[in-house]
Write a structure and sequence with these properties.
This protein has helices spanning 9-12, 24-36, 118-131, and strands spanning 43-45, 55-60, 63-85, 88-105, 111-117. The protein is globular and about 35 Å long. By secondary structure, the protein is α+β, with helices and mostly antiparallel strands. The chain has a single domain (9-131), classed as Peptide Deformylase.
Length: 136
């Protein structure tokens, strides 16, 4: 189900708690909401739809991937990016890395470890900041 996008900084600044298998419906809502905003958004964290769980959805080259409890294990190639956000107006500078190695649980809640680079890595880092309550 497509959910309204949260724009309240007080909600967005709260840290998310670990997701469980019981949060699959929230992940589906996150994917649906990202799909509905695909013309202006390439990733979303669950807090952007009012769910304070560690779930992100990322458009990885046209395929939407969901990650439960993502954790960056390694990062390389620091650079400064300027990013916008569907939940906030304007653009902000952020330190990002060209390559990140991420451990997460997939849609079957199976543990995965995968490296991402380029724009996909940047999206993942942006959404993971949301999980920490960092406003981008």
């Amino acid at each position: 189900m497509v959910k309204p996008v949260v724009k309240d900084a007080l909600i967005l600044m709260q840290k998310s708690v670990p997701a469980t298998k019981a949060d699959m419906y929230d992940a589906c809502d996150l994917i649906d909401t990202l799909g509905a905003h695909s013309h202006e958004c390439v990733g979303m964290a669950a807090n952007m739809i009012g769910v304070l769980k560690r779930i992100i959805a990322v458009n990885d080259g046209g395929e939407i991937m969901v990650m439960f409890n993502p954790e960056i294990l390694k990062k390389e190639g620091e650079y400064e990016a300027e990013e916008g956000c569907l939940s906030l107006s304007g653009k902000r500078k952020a330190v990002r890395y060209t390559t990140v190695k991420v451990k997460y649980r997939d849609e079957r809640f199976k543990t995965q470890v995968k490296s991402f680079s380029g724009f996909t890595a940047q999206i993942i880092q942006h959404e993971m900041d949301h999980l920490e309550g960092i406003l981008i």
